[in-house]
Amino acid sequence: MPKNIETILKDECSLVKDRPVIVGVSGGADSLCLLEALRTADYPVVVAHFDHQLRPESRLDARMVEETAARLNLDCVIDGADVSGYSDENKMSLEEAARTLRYRFLFGLARRRSAQAVAVGHTADDQVETVLMHFLRGSGMSGLKGMSYRSILKMFDAEIPLVRPLLRLWREETAAFCVANGLQPLYDSSNDSLNFQRNRIRHLLIPTLEGYNPKLREAILHMSESLKGDYAFAMETLAIAWKESVVTMEDDIITFDFDLLSKYSLGLQRNLVKQAMQTLSPGVDISFTALERATNIINSSVSSAHADLKAGLRILRESEFIYIYMLGAELPYSLWPQMTEGTSLHISPAGQVALAGGWKMNCDLRTLPAEAMDQAERNQDQLQVWLDAENLPESFEVRTRRQGDHFIPLGMQGHSQKLSDIFINQKIPQRARAGWPLLCAGKEILWVPGYRPSHLYRLTESTQRIIHFSITRPREKL
User: Fold this and answer.
1) What class is the 5-209 domain?
2) CATH class for the region spanning 225-326
3) Could you read off the pLDDT of 57-92 as tens digits, one per residue?
4) For the whole model, what pTM was predicted?
5) CB neighbours of 230 closer than 8 A, spacing ≥ 6?
6) What pLDDT is recorded for position 476?
7) Residue 194: partners with Cβ closer than 8 Å, 6 or more residues away
8) Half-sphere exposure (CA, 13 Å, Cβ side) for 270?
9) DSSP code at position 160
10) Options 3.30.413.10, 3.90.1170.50, 3.30.420.40, 3.50.40.10; which CATH number does 344-472 get?
11) Which positions of the chain have pLDDT values less than 50?
């Protein structure tokens, strides 16, 4: 046992001595070593054993763990399940099924006992094997850095951490510790079976690679430690980019600002998409090809495109936004001014009308023409406009589009355009067009919010009466 085990428990695993720790105990040398380390350091522990029911002797193993706990006067909880049946039913590997059911049990027990953490006996050997497994799958830095002393497995619990205090202890060291302390580990025959990928890596791949580098295990362990620092730096950068580029975040949809997202490096784009996918679907296995599909959409010159990613997750590029969302999610309309299709409202100076989703349109006459013209010249907000009111009525209509709508935009020298063409040219999302508010006087469109005012009612040097319209966004929820 390393001399600094108490420092690891306190500083790396962030454990305290006034709340219980659920200790996963299989009965092998690693888990018994972990249990003894926590017990002798005076941490309150609950022994937890999960019977995978994959071997005839598994019930005897459970009984042995129970007897060990009783001898040490420790609380013990035993549970189990038909892992093989669960694997067949859910079409997953035995390893994945065993891990899923085991962690469900451990974290469920942790919640019931108000535990501070679940502790497992992963060693340096497990770390090396894990890194190699991730390498064979083509993992990026997040996989090659391996396991951490303390981590959150969101698919099992969003708050209770999993801790691995023995990550720098080799398997032969845990065996020696058990001998020195009179502990009798169980022998698990399934560890010899080459039916499991981890065992093939342990018994076949690592010995072969050690023929090229006798200190392979140490080299991989050092590499994973080095990558942890690089990964922490990358995550800091990712957190900043996430805060900058995420516009809204719901349970089933995350919206990015396209302009910001498209300017990031390819690697940062991939990681932002990956984080969005993992946020929406914790535990989803994200492939490189899925991230490639996403970045192809982000960096495409096409303003509207979509693609399936994985496990019911999709990406949509829509004008100035990128959506990562679950299949069936209702895409937001709150990003643009909208009103119910086919409706009509009336607005007068010093008045206000409510549009849909908390948006509002305001109208007021400006009594100081010079000041108003200066504001109009400096304006960068396309959701407000100043018009020459000389030939305009006292009341205006706010409505949605109608068949055959035409508009004479500012700067077109009096030439008319189809409203439908303007929507297309301005890349207004298809699903937002039917509810887009239009400011009208009679049959004439005076202003398409977010675009331009009518050329016929532009401000000129001779303008004396000015009317101002603005659209305000809904207040953000606290």
Assistant:
1) alpha beta
2) alpha beta
3) 889 999 999 999 999 999 999 999 999 999 999 988
4) 0.68
5) 141, 145
6) 55
7) 200, 203, 204
8) 16
9) S
10) 3.50.40.10
11) 477-478
